[in-house]
Amino acid sequence: MTTSIEDMAATLFEARSNLRQIAPLRETMGLARIEDALAVQESVTGRWLDRGRRLVGRKIGLTAEAVQKQMGVDEPDYGVLWADYAFSDGDTVDMARFMQPRAEAEIAFVMDRGLADPDAAMTDVIRAVAYAVPALEVIDSAIADWNIGLVDTVADNASGGGFVLGKSPRRISDVDLRLCGMIMGRNGAQASLGLGAACLGHPLTAVLWLVRKMAAIGRPVEEGDIILSGSLGPVVPIAAGDEFSVEIQGFEPFHVGFAG
Known about the structure:
Blueprint: H1 5-18, H2 25-28, H3 34-50, E1 55-61, H4 65-71, E2 77-82, E3 86-88, E4 92-94, E5 102-111, H5 122-128, E6 129-139, H6 150-155, E7 160-165, E8 181-186, E9 189-195, H7 203-216, E10 226-231, E11 236-237, E12 243-248, E13 254-259
Parallel strand pairs: 1-10, 3-7, 4-13
Antiparallel strand pairs: 1-2, 5-6, 5-10, 5-11, 6-7, 8-9, 8-12, 12-13
């Protein structure tokens, strides 16, 4: 028997609030439809907003073709970014704020203007982006042992955790966002290699998808929003004491540590 959307949202909200992992919702609460998973995510987001958290943007997930095939989908998913989980180059992040974190290197975009047209064109996106900046996303899951199905990750804010932004903003015309190479290091050793094209063929393609999707559901991308466009390479587990570096061609390298 399927549990109500609000009961599932309450369960996820409590898990995130207490940093306590739970069993997959698809197994314990009958979550099966993407539409219901999105409704759960929306309800959890509303609960956080009611408690004073500040939304600063959106993240895009499932941008790699191989991962989409693994999940049985043909488009990405999305989640929200919170101000209290935003970090900067050189920070040391407390591991106690996460449950089972992993790192992805990607490109973030900051919007100069909002876009509310569900039929927006790529030219609209290009005009609306203020700048691009290198980023590390900390993905995290309330689902125990990362035993996630598509509905679980969608409901759980697309497995969103936190994010780290570098300090080298670039105009998008000054960087080859498709062919730029990425190296993510962990404790001085190479941990992940990637390319801009790994993100839906081009990171701005992911942004266009998000702009259209958010406009269609009545939650349009707004001026000042940060958009994490999706991973450029394999995901890397994070442990206490780890030091990560991110190098993306065309940007300055940045670093972040994790302690706990």
